[in-house]
Hints:
With 392 residues, the chain is mostly helical. It is 82% helix and 0% strand.
Amino acid sequence: MNTEPATHSTATRAQLPPLYAAGFVTAFGAHSIAASLGGYTASGHASLLTLGLLLAVYDGAEVLLKPVFGSLADRIGPRPVLLAGLVAFALASAAFVLAGNPALVGIARLGQGAAAAAFSPAAGALVARLTPGTRHGRAFGSYGAWKGLGYTSGPLLGGILITLGGYNLLFAALAVLALVVAIWAAVAVPTVAALPRRRQTVLDLARRLTGGSFLRPTLALAGATAALAVGVGFLPVAGAHHGLGPLATGAFVSLLAATTALVQPWAGRARDAGRIRDEGAMAAGLVSAAVGMSAAALPGVIGIAVAAVAIGAGAGLVTPIAFAHLAATTPPERLGQTMGAAEVGRELGDAGGPLLVGAIAVAGTLALGMTGLAVLLAALGVLIATTSTIAR
């Protein structure tokens, strides 16, 4: 096990893949279960309110606890928080299997969400600390691509595992996955010492979290994640309105996810090479997602295809650039706190985007709801571009 304090110059590429795998764990864990909860509640004759609570408890734990564990990672070092979170995720998953009571799925998801709230910001902080600034874009592009793989494969693989062995098999697989990644990280990821920190007052924290260098990338992450969540959730509905079957709409959702995964490493490399500027790229990504939202209202296959590619490309452009920008503009001793707070923005976008579109659709039409989000995303892109120009 590598226990030597790491610096940018001593970090090797072998130290980063376990961190990418940790990102996969939280994404796969969230979506593999969430995608099958509808069938779970239907078989148990539970209400839609129960379904909503089961869906929300994982993200709710992350929203509340990510800033807490991010600050802890700054205080004691991110590696112990990463390892403890992964082990806790494995234990929460294994406890569900050992309990043998399907009604405890909500408690198990709460435990998983709390554990993910620990290792997710710690992994982000370690990616930043172990990578020189000239490679932040590439590193976060790969990290985002692995998370995208988890989001994409979660529903399919989770459904297969549940079909073969029920929820016990899925939770057992999650326990093994998290434990394997924890062992891998313990062997490959070096100790990154906590850095001396200047005393921070509440006013100092508020000033930093309301500054443009934090708000612009965090708002961009929230907008991109909102677009991605709406694309995954509502493009199949829009396709069905245009007469497309489940196979076709599923293929378009896969196209969206694949585009996001492929664009992220490219965007990160382009940023590191100086071919794109952070604020301009974030604004362009949000506008691309807005174009995709608008295209979903067009009739037929072409509109849905354009929507999938444009939304996926926009989210794939924003995500690594925003995280790399946060890493570049945050004091190293506050990286965990910043990553945790920024992740809250993503979670709020993940929940708020579908909620906004659904609310407008109920009052009007789905096309109107997606157009409403498109206007919001475009306005956010313009805001980021203009405020960054004024700041310079």
